[in-house]
Amino acid sequence: MIPVKRREAIVREMTGVRQTTLDLLAKVPDEWFRTRVHGFYSPVGWHFGHVGRTEEYWTRQRLQGRPPVDPALDFLYTDRPDNPKDDRVAVLEKSEVAAYLEKTRAAALDALDGPDLAGGELAANGYAWEFAVAHECQHQETIREMLALLHRARGTVDPYAPSAEFPPPRPKWIFTKAGEFPMGSEAPEAYDNERPVHD
């Protein structure tokens, strides 16, 4: 079992990240929900469902071998070659996506208390849930990028654009001496392109 304090920290982090996702969802105009900004991207609305599907997949299906909470939506919101991006325009309405996010979140939190979390890399210290949080943050960035492009193309006001009230962050420079240094990480949460540590 995951220690109580660690579990509470995971839940807090997931809750905070999800609020940002729901704020984004509320700001997407209905008529943009099924829009593909570019051939590289799935429709805007697909990314919201994909966040929930991925969270539930890693914490519940993959980790504990349980079936998806909704097999049809599990397929719709998965990123697979047999689910091409052109087919992903048949996404749920915004309110239905919000309900799906709630359902998959409940399943992910339920899995936190699962009896079979004794070992393995996915379960260790809540790694699967940390991965889900990082993945959700990545898709928040993607959604923001798509919305910015849509607002620019249509000449409409972007509610997230930097302004006097919300100035952009100032870059912080970090100086280091020239020479050889170790780069990378062997931490469990490191991505494959961050491994191994190398000079």
SSE diagram, text form:
Blueprint: H1 4-27, H2 44-64, H3 71-76, H4 94-112, H5 127-154
Helix pairs in contact: 1-4, 1-5, 2-4, 2-5
How would you characterize the overall build of this protein?
With 199 residues, the chain is mostly helical. Helix content is 49%, strand content 0%. The chain contains five helices and no strands. It has helices at 4-27, 44-64, 71-76, 94-112, 127-154. It is globular and about 45 Å long. The model has no long low-confidence stretch (mean pLDDT 89).
Keywords:
single chain, 199 residues, mainly alpha, 5 helices, 0% strand
In short:
49% of the residues lie in helices and 0% in strands.
Strand runs, count: 0
Helix percentage? 40-55%
Through-space gap between termini: 37 Å
Low-confidence stretches: none
Instruction: Supply the helix-strand structural class.
Output: mainly alpha
Oligomeric state, counting identical vs distinct chains: single chain
Mean pLDDT comes to 89
Percentage of β-strand residues = under 5%
Following the backbone from N to C, one meets helices and strands in this order, namely HHHHH
Task: Tell me the number of helical segments per DSSP (H or I, 4 or more residues long).
Answer: 5
Main pleated sheet: none
- Kindly provide the radius of gyration, computed on alpha-carbon positions and rounded to a whole number of angstroms: 19 Å
Broad shape: globular
